[in-house]
Amino acid sequence: MANLRTYTLIYILLVALATGKFVFFEFNFAYATAIGGTIVLAVTKILLIAGYYQHLIEEPRAISYMMATAVFMVFLLVIAAGYSIQ
Amino acid sequence: MSDLPPMTSVKRWLVTTNHKDVGILYITTALFFLLLGGAMALLFRVQLWEPGGLGILEPVQFNQAVSTHGLLMVFWFLSPIASGFANYLVPLQIGAKDLAFPRLNALSYWFYLFSGILFVLSFFQGQTYAGGWTLYAPLNVPMYTPAMDATAGNNAAILALTLFVMSITIGSVNFLTTIHRSRAEGLGLWNMPMFTWSWLLTVWMMLFAFAALLAALLLLSIDRLFLTEYFMTDQGSSLLWAHLFWFFGHPEVYIVFFPALGIMFETFQTFTGRRLVGRKWVIIAMVLVAVQSFLVWMHHMFLTTINLEIKTLYMATTIGISLPFDLMVFSLIYTMVKGRVRFTTPFLFSLGALVLFILGGITGVFLGAVVLDYEFRGTYWVVAHFHYVMVSGVTALVAGLYYWWPKITGKMYSEALGKLNFAVYFIGFNMLYFPMFLAWETPRRVFHYGESAQIYHQIATVGAFVLGLSFLIMFFTFAKSWISGPKAPDNPWEYSRTAEWAIPSPPPLENWDGRPSYASGRLEFVDDSPAATDGGVAHGQGNTAEASVEHEAEHADHASIWPFGIGVGMFVFFLGLSGLTPFVANFAEGTAEPPEGLVGFETQPDIMYPVLIALGMAIMGITLFQFGREKFDAPVMNIAERWPFGGIGNTKFGIWVFLASDVIVFGAAIGAYIFMRLHMGWMDWEFDPITMAGLVNTYILLTSSFTVIIALVMAERKNKSGLLGAMGATVLLALAFMGVKAFEYTQKMGDGHYWWYSIEYSIYYVTTGLHALHVILGVLVALFMIYRIISIDAYLEDHRPVEFFGLYWHFVDIVWVLLFPLFYLM
Predict the structure, then answer these.
(1) How far is it, in rounded angstroms, from Cα B459 to Cα B384?
(2) Which of A37, B236, B740, B784 could form a disulfide with B679 if both were Cys (CB 3.0 to 4.6 A apart)?
(3) Taxonomically, which superkingdom (chain A) (predicted)?
């Protein structure tokens, strides 16, 4: 497992990324840009938390595949359902 | 508690956690619900004797009988009886001593039983649910159908189903952990028995599919209890329900059918004396079906307003899913051709199941084609088709009952009676369901039909009673065997191949004398005692490190009363919730912004229900606390095949599996938001967030994730005060988070924006509320852990529980990472 220093650095990074999302919408970015940027920041945050705080990078790869499958299922449901009413 | 009372004692069945006992409980309970569901079917079949109904049921009673028949059979009979077989047999087939989490196994049974009792009680609380087993919106809410008044009975039926799904989720986590991590040495996945293979794929499908249903039911329950508007809007609600329900509903077909298929594979092998032809390809075909099952759900929505492109795509995927089934059917037929068939009762039922399934499968292809579906949808063609599929599964499950009866009871049954049972069953089945194809123009769910179809309906009604009679013969056969049947040998079937037949009938409590091993290529029982180990016993690959961590319990426990207690608590709590609606409706009417056009919520408040809620919470609090404190040693396998999930402990793996299911629950709830917003028009969404509150809570929750990780570091360093401080800080931060949330909600309500104000506010309150509920549950666990640290210096020697708690807490944080932009920024 990582040491306290690494955990602290990740925490600082997470706070910065959270602030970044806020900044996208508080300053004059185009709506599409703000959404795109926020999605990138959110995904980065999720990967950091899952990878380092939940130690997913140290677990057997199959665990990551299982979680990725669950996320894929959500995307499948949401994208297909969303497309069905376009 | 560790001593298990004898099987003749009632106490035994309340405290047991042994997989075989739980299996018997599942099977007997499921058979009870089969009788209840069957009685409902006989009632409405009599009503259907003549067009317009015979008059034995009022229209709303007919609707209740039809709805509860479907719900009971699909949920409370089909999956649980398969779960009973799996409980009893899967650990035996893979060489395990028990399931990975025996107490959770008992808990999932009690949730199942109490959900069924709650469902039965719903008949006596005004009226039970009458909107069809698919619970289509808006029929599932009272808004547009006053007959569906939010009586306690209607609510109780929905809540019972919710509790049932919780039982399924717990069971899925348990079986996945067991099958992936407790296989005997040398038992690779490819070599697992076919029933275990079918069950493994079933529970994988259950994990993802039932999570979507759980989300849908949570939203529906909240609509009914708290007056939110998910399924009450005039735009988008019915499509939202259909997507969520059928994302679950189509995999459910295979969830129901796969265990039956597994029984067919086992019995065909045993009674033809031949290994399944193309065994490896059959496994691949099953895996393909399990994957494809999540890609076909919109063929249930061809008559909705979804676009033609997606209908066409789903028509193609639907036709595609029939191909792997063709392979399986041909494999079974060819196994018969290559083998020498012995027409025993289990084989006859399995063969019957195959014939019926072929008919059911072929008639289903019609419904997969968009154009034909326009004609057939909503008619008795659909009813006939899915009964040929689902009840062919029942046919195979009856085969399983006969096949494993000698193993479970230690008694043989009368073959003559068994064959009579099959003959009556097969005739009754076809008399009941085949005429429905001929009367296909009859509309579903009503008792009015054309005169020309009357003869077919009358034949079907007679067939229903013949089919019912066949089950009486089955019960008589088993009762006679139980009372006076000859003793069954270890293996009454000459060519059975799986491990359960290598031990006595019935098997002993601990299953095996030695450790089962397939390392030599055949089943052996290895003596792992120190004297024997001195000579060098073969060890499973890559498991030495785990063996040192997970020391084998010298004495495994098989009894705990707390799962039963938690089940009682949940039952009382859910029963209380069922009568909450009138109180919420009264509160809503008294606010500055009461809901407009509230219809179907006129039931009067009854103080009994809030009392039950409080009582249920108290019981749960006490029993969960005792459950957490109880020392319980589950059997652990030091040497086992664990691919692809080696290198991780059972509990941690179980938590990850649970989180995978929770991803779907939250994903579906968040998906509901995205879907409804897309349906409305993304920029037309009218919601005014308090952005700063969201940002502050983001910082708070991120910081709490950091304190949890510090707690883990402190536990690793055996620093008690540091561990206490970090856990305490986590609780305080969580409370601060809830405080900000309370401020936010208060502000919103002060502006008149209650959860019934609009669909935007319904979704905001429910989604963030679901997250807040996770935070509250996390706080309760954290407080319990603090109590354990203070009282017994817990987690300093073994820090893994802190890590397990962290997995959950970080997940809650991750969900907020998504909720913040979705609800406060976009």
Answers:
(1) 14
(2) B236
(3) Archaea
